[in-house]
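Minimal example, chain plus nicotinamide-adenine-dinucleotide.
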Amino acid sequence: MSILVVGGAGYIGAHVVRLLQQRGEEVVVADDLSTGQAARVGDALLIEVDIAAPGAAESLETAMREHAVDSVIHFAAKKQVGESVLRPAWYYQQNVGGLANLLTAMEAAKVGTMIFSSSAAVYGMPDVELITEDGTEPRPINPYGQTKLIGEWMMAASERAWGLRWSALRYFNVAGAGWPDLGDPAVLNLVPMVLDRLARGERPRIFGEDYPTPDGSCIRDYIHVLDLAQAHLAALDELRDPVLAEEGAVGQAFNVGTGVGISVKEVIEEIGAASGLDVTAEIEPRRAGDPPRLVASPEKIGDVLRWKAEHGLSDIIRSAWEAWQAGPRRIG
Ligand SMILES: NC(=O)c1ccc[n+]([C@@H]2O[C@H](COP(=O)([O-])OP(=O)(O)OC[C@H]3O[C@@H](n4cnc5c(N)ncnc54)[C@H](O)[C@@H]3O)[C@@H](O)[C@H]2O)c1
């Protein structure tokens, strides 16, 4: 039996592929390489397919049968919030359409287990200290977040219709690298944005210093990508075990975070400490849609999947810095 990792050539997916291979699992990757890179999957079999294209359901079904797939881990999506506001139909087509094709193929090929990359973006702008899955109502404020919530609904409907066993992992702020060759290649999140500015000889930017937080900058919950990857293995093990799965993991969404809030200023200071560079920042106006604080309660994932983050901010930043320095835009 094998595990199909859809979007496995991307930043997070490649970490899961490597961990699965390290523990001896058979892994097949499906990816259109739109933002991923073939080199990231190592010697795992890579099937190049755009899951949102016409005919994709049939090719995915064939691949599932040929490789005796028993579980799917689904990362493949477009993930830029701003772009999703400008191109909503395309985001729905890619993220919702792609998932529809994947679920069609799974039902036809009788593949019954699925782990889905959801996001803290499903919550929108909650005004709470700690976000809980069952106490904080999801209210996404942009098409990207909407596609993730709809994805969860589609899996819940597939569970009712044909017995899909699924879990959604709602990632908070992912950063760092498990290996220096698997750093985040995109400049979309805070840590790569700061490193990108430093690489250009520019000062890092802070968007808003007048939030109601202790140092005035926004607070987020930073999760090491390797801890996040481990959470997928924990969910997979639970879903594959019929007894454990019925006890709690099936049909559930889990926050993947630490419960610890860290400010933008603290992250930038830590980058200064790891790199030895001057990280004096420029203060810019607030950006629309940035809530002051987004921190996960990790209680549910701890209770049900027995998963807990092992790495703190210094590990995250040190590993991100090492990965940046191993790449083509080395600083200094
Ligand atoms: N990185 C984050 O901070 C973060 C936070 C929350 C949720 N997520 C979600 O996690 C998942 C993975 O994110 P990532 O950071 O690794 O992004 P990524 O862009 O590095 O990875 C996505 C992968 O999916 C592939 N892909 C995209 N569209 C495809 C399509 N139509 N057909 C086939 N392959 C396709 C890309 O080529 C890429 O390899 C995404 O679903 C994203 O929305 C990411």
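The chain has eleven helices and 14 strands. The chain has two domains: 2-174+222-256, 175-221+258-325.
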